[in-house]
Amino acid sequence: LTAGATPEVIREGELEKRSDSLFQLWKKKLVVLTKDSLSLFPDGHKRAKGKELGFGSILKVDCVERTGKYIYFTIVTKDRKEIDFRCPDQSCWNASITMALIDFQNKRAIQDFKSRQEMEQAAGYQ
């Protein structure tokens, strides 16, 4: 990715995130999903500084449950932090995020495999 290039947006819209505060209120966030990350912006504005969750730091999308008009799901990071979200039943944000994450993990696995092969070949030529 060249500097200043904006990654291609797969999906953009609204999600609610459970706050870390004592009251655990649901706060609306503008969410931008790209092939590498999920960015969260407060108050639905991209002007503010967003919080970026890079797929390299995300382990999985977990405990998806449908309750009434919402789908609840949790993003688990590699350092075991759990971030709770909910979205309207019809929006299926959990599926969009899961698909993008699996794509990212597959590409990374292929890259790792290729670079391992190249290293082994290089070692074999010495």
Quick gist of this model?
The chain has 126 residues and is α+β, with helices and mostly antiparallel strands.
Describe the secondary-structure layout.
Blueprint (H helix, E strand, L loop, with lengths): L8 E10 L7 E9 L2 E6 L8 E4 L3 E10 L2 E8 L4 E7 L4 H33 L1
Antiparallel strand pairs: 1-2, 1-7, 2-3, 3-4, 5-6, 6-7
Keywords: Cytoplasm, Membrane
Organism: Accipiter nisus (Eurasian sparrowhawk)
Protein name: Pleckstrin homology-like domain family A member 2
How is this structure best described in words?
The chain is of the alpha+beta class and 126 residues long. Helices cover 26% and strands 43% of the residues. β2 and β3 form a beta hairpin. The longest helix has 33 residues, at 93-125. Belongs to the PHLDA2 family. GO terms for molecular function: phosphatidylinositol phosphate binding.
